[in-house]
Every structure is written in C-alpha cells, then in structure tokens.
Amino acid sequence: PTAAFAAAFDRLITARLLADGCTGRAVVLDAALDVTFRAICEMLIGPQEDAHKLGQLQSDVMDVTQAMLALPIRLPGTRFYRGLQARKRIMDALRQEICMRRENGLKLDRRDDFLQTLLLKSHMDSPEEALTDEQILDNILTLIIAGQVTTATAITWMVKYLGDNTDLQEKLRSIQLDLASKHHDAPLTLQHLNTMDYAYKTVKESLRMATIVSWFPRVALKDCQVAGFHIKKDWIINVDARSIHYDPAVYDNPTLFDPSRFNDDMKPYSFLVFGAGSRTCLGMNLAKIMMLIFLHRLITNFSRWEMADHDTSLEKWAMFPRLKNGCPIRLTPIRKDKMH
Ligand code: HEM
N or C, fewer C-beta in 10 Å, the chain? Predict the structure, then answer.
C-alpha cells in the first residue's frame, strides 16, 4: 500500500505542477492541500471519479478542521456550527459509500483501499470485536484530518525555507537533477526515494524548523520524577517540542536552516516532529514520502522559485502555525531540452 500511495502522490503532484508551471505562479499551501487531500482520500476510500463530490468533501473537511479551534457555540453562522454541519455531510457521504459497497457484495469487490480493509475485517470479526460503521467512519475522517493539513503545512514551510536559502536550493537541485537523469524521468518509487539522502535531510530540517505540532499534552498516570522535577499523578504535562527543536544545547545555531546538521547522530528524544513513544504519529512515513516527492518534483521541474509576496505574517487561529498568504511563489520552468 505504501508503494501505491507514493505512486498516486507522484501522479497527482506531477499533474498539479505541470498546470501551475504553465501560469508561472503557485500558492504552495493551496497546491499542497489539494494533492495531500487527494492522495490520502485515494488511499482511504479509493479513487473518486466524481470531481464535484470530491470538491465538496474537501471543503467539508476544511470546515471541520477550522471548527476544531472555534468556540463551541452551536448557532447558525458560527465556525463551530459550520463544522458540525460539514461533519454530518461527510459522514452521510461515507455511509452511502459503505451501503453501496455492501450492496455490491464486499467479497466480490476487488478494491484494496483502507475502507474496504476495515469493512472486510468487521465482516469477518466476531460481533464483540468488530468495529461498528460509526467507528469505521470516525477512523477514516480522523486520518484525513490528521494527515492533510499537517503535511500540507509542512510542505509549505519547506518551500519557503528553500525560497529563502537559494544556495541550498541550488545545491539540492543539482543533486536531484542528477538522480532524475538516472531514473530517466520514470514515476518515482520507494527505491528512488531511498536514494535521496540530502533531500531527506532537507525534509527533516524543514520539519524541525516548522515544528507543525508545537506541543502535545499528556496526563501523568502516576507520581514520577523527570530531570529532578516531581510530577504528581493526574497532572497535565505539555511536551514543548518547539522549545526542544530551538534549544541551542540540542541543536547548534537552531535558527539556521541547515539540512547537513542531520549528518550527525542525534540525541535521543531531540527530534519530536512526529511525537514520541506509544502515540507517535501513525502517518509519519506517508508524510515523509509526500514531502520528498513534492520536493523532488518541484525542484527538478523548475530552475528556481522565489517568494511572490514577502509578507511573513501568520494566520490567526490556524490549528498549526502557517503563513497567512499561503506562500505564493513565482516559478521558472526548466527547459528539459537544455538538461541533457
Ligand atoms: C508532516 C506531517 C505530520 C506531522 C507533523 C504529524 C505530527 C503528529 C504528531 C506530533 C503526533 C503525536 C501527537 C501526540 O503525541 O499527542 C501525531 C499523531 C498522529 N498522526 Fe500525525 N503528523 C503528520 C502527518 C500525518 C499523516 C499523513 C497521517 C495519516 C494519514 C497522520 C496520522 C496521525 C494519527 C492517526 C495520529 C495519532 C496516533 C495515536 O494517537 O496513536 N499524521 N502526528
């Protein structure tokens, strides 16, 4: 499934960049939200042919995400209310999809998406163990929400950091073009991604600098001691990942964007972009794959990009810190005939 996911993402981003390349401009956040959403949906509920339905689902998911930080006021017109309505529409659409699959006969259906896997499993499991339809739907929506905005935001920061660091952009481009010429422009596979050492370090450095999930809360299950501090049972503890990622005792010169810092071994628990321990991000491999493919396609299709708007103000009330302008860039396509 991971290989199929990488292939789907590669297909989607290649098409998107081709279209953006024609206009010479892109708003990175919009492009990233679009392709991450499509790839994740394809993995979870299979390819969707009805563009209108997919568009509605995407805008409903966005409304749900935006309601998550809103004041819980259930009155028409509020962000919270819009989120509730959107969630209802999403669940209705997914319920219809489940009905349709059951009517067609689950076992005859040759789909291999996540929804199908869950449906088949709950069909086979004993009634006490089987997931209910509502639990299946909740799982699907959770994965879309956990995966789309996080990854799209990370991609946006990565493009911004490289837009600000043109030397690094150049260095990475020459490495990636070299790799691309060895792949003969074939669709990217996991094997290709495994050879992208410097690009991978660039992804990690972007994740460190951006720290999309700034902190995560935990509840102490028993009295304990951490680094000399007494922590009592039931206390709520915030793990402040951003402070760790910007601690000069952990990362030299932490405000500098420097992928090569990952040449060295890291201290344990110093890289918390995906959390740590038993609740570590379930989608971290998928996220890294999306970031690497996006980066490779962007850097090998355009001879440079630069910020089209230098305003660095952040969006207020966003779930994760992100640029208000969504990071608009100007793109200069590479003339492929010049490359070889
Ligand atoms: C760059 C992108 C991403 C970042 C920065 C990120 C970050 C995180 C972090 C920090 C946590 C742990 C939160 C905690 O400990 O309280 C987490 C959990 C989780 N993430 Fe991600 N994530 C990303 C992408 C994804 C993707 C693509 C998916 C799936 C499609 C996903 C699914 C999940 C799930 C299901 C959990 C909950 C795991 C659990 O509680 O057992 N994430 N993520």
Answer: C
